[in-house]
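Dear support,

I submitted the protein below through the web form. The confirmation email said the job was done, but the results page showed an empty box. After a refresh the structure appeared. I'm attaching both so you can tell me whether what I see now is the final result or a partial one.
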Amino acid sequence: MTSATAAALLAGLVLASPARADTPACIAPLDLIRLANPLPRVAQKIASGEPVTIVAIGSSSTSGAGASSPAANYPSRLAIELKQHFPKLSITVLNRGVGGEEVADMLSRFDSAVVAEKPDLVLWQLGTNSVIRGHKLGGHDALIRTGLAKIRAIGADIVLIDPQFAPKVISKPDAERMVTLISATAKREDVDLFRRFEVMRHWHDVDQIGFETFVSPDGLHMNDWSYACMAKGLGNAIAEAAQRPVMSATAVTAR
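What the results page shows now:
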C-alpha cells in the first residue's frame, strides 16, 4: 500500500449522522487515527482469505453503555465498518465488555473471554473506571503488561484503547496521567494504541462540538453518534494497518 493510498483510506474518517441533518460530521486528523504498527496476524488472514476473529474486551464503553441498542455499540458498528473494507472476508467481532471493570477484573477473565476465543486481534479498552473511582495508578503498567503477555502468547495482534474524553473523566485529577501511562506502556511494549481520548478532545476543543453531541446525559458514557464515529475511525485504522507493508527484521539498508 502506498502512502497516498493509506492517506486516502484514513481520510475516510467522516461520519454524518443518519438521524439528524444538523449533527456535525466527525473528522479526526490522520496522526490521531493511524496505528503505529502494522497488524501482521490480521494481514496474514486477509491475504489467505481466512476468517478473522476480533475480541473487544473492556468495560462499559465496550459493552455499550449509553448506546440506544446493542447494535449501536462500538464493536457492533466496527463489524459493519470492517465488512465494508473487506466485503469478501468473514469477520467476527466478539463483544466481551463488562460494565464497571478495572484492569485487574478484566485480567481475571482473560483466559475465558479472550484466549479461549483464539482471536486474531484483541482490542483492549481500559483505564476509565480506575480514574473515575480515584484509585491509585501504581501497578497499572505491570497489570497491562501481564495482559499483553497473555495476548502475545496466542499470537494475536493488539490494539489498546484509552479512556474517553468526557466531563466525568476529565474532571478527575488522574485522567491525563492514566492516558499518559497507557501511551507509555504501549510504546514501551511496542503495541498499537487507538487514542480515543485525543480523538474525542479534538471533537470538543478543535471542532467545537459540544459534549451533548457525543456524550450521554450521564456525562460519562458515549452515545450512538460517538460509538459510530469511533468505529469508523478504528475500522479505517485497522484496515490501513492490516494492509501496510511489514519491514522484514532481516532487511539491510543498501549502502
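Response: this is the final, complete result; the empty box was a page-load delay. Strands lie at 14-15, 26-27, 52-58, 91-97, 121-125, 157-161, 192-194.
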